[in-house]
Amino acid sequence: MRVLVVDDDIQIIRAMTINLRARGHDVDTAADGACALRLAAERPPDVVLLDLGLPDMEGLEVIRRLRGWSQVPIIVLSARHSAGEKVRCLDSGADDYVTKPFGMDELLARMRAAERRSAHTEEAPLVRTESFTVDLGAKRVVRGGEEVRLTPTEWHILEILARNAGQLVSQRRLLHDVWGPAYQSETNYLRVYMAQLRRKLEPDPGRPRYLITEAGRGYRFENTS
Asked: CA 107 to CA 113: how far, in whole Å?
């Protein structure tokens, strides 16, 4: 499995990485929520091991954002023992909750169980809004029951934004990922293509609800009603 370990404790990150790699798993690590969400989009994991006490956002927020576009199994690893905390995590979309300290054999068994459940239930990731649905697996957009025709460049921009729903994606990153490192200052490219996407997807392109500009910084895909 490819495992994404999310924890701001360097000692725990190091121990988990050594133990998981020793058992043949690929491991990515993140010390905060923003990094975790970016890695989950760029290098989709088979399971996420998530601590709740992150420096930039609560683990619950990471769960909610991941569930906006992914069904990857999420196992919370936390020192918080309250039943209410467990219920909130599970209701937000976590698959399991393991309290610290825990045995590695137990954790591995829970990972295998989560993977088995995922293999039976996982569908192509969908990002839904009230106006349209982005099917990241099939690489298509449906609006009003009909497929919206996008150019490859329009799709690439939309895919990056949808996989990072709710987060600011910088102009520099979009230009680098879509056109390449030589185009990182060509912000006019983004203005043109974002206008095209809004004409195709937004109910009112002049007052966008889903493809939001943050002036001078970048763009954000907002999929909440």
From this structure: 10
pLDDT digits (tens, 9 = 90+) for 76-135: 998 887 888 888 898 888 999 998 888 899 899 999 888 887 764 445 578 889 999 998
Strand, coil or helix: 218: strand
Q: Which of 104, 121, 138 is the last residue of a domain?
A: 121
CATH of the domain at 184: 1.10.10.10
Split into its structural domains, the chain has a count of 2
Q: The domain containing residue 135 runs over which residues?
A: 126-221
Contact 78, 102 (CB under 8 A): no
Quote the crossing angle between the two packed helices 187-201 and 171-178, to the nearest 10°: 90
Q: What CATH number is associated with residue 60? A: 3.40.50.2300
Please report the pLDDT score of residue 5 as a whole number: 97
pLDDT at site 124: 52
Is-above-0.85 flag for pTM? no
d(CA 45, CA 27): 9
The C-alpha angle with vertex 97 and arms to 94 and 103, in degrees rounded to 5, equals 140
At position 197, the amino acid (one-letter code) is L
Rg, Å, the chain Cα set: 19
pLDDT of residue 41 exceeding 90: no
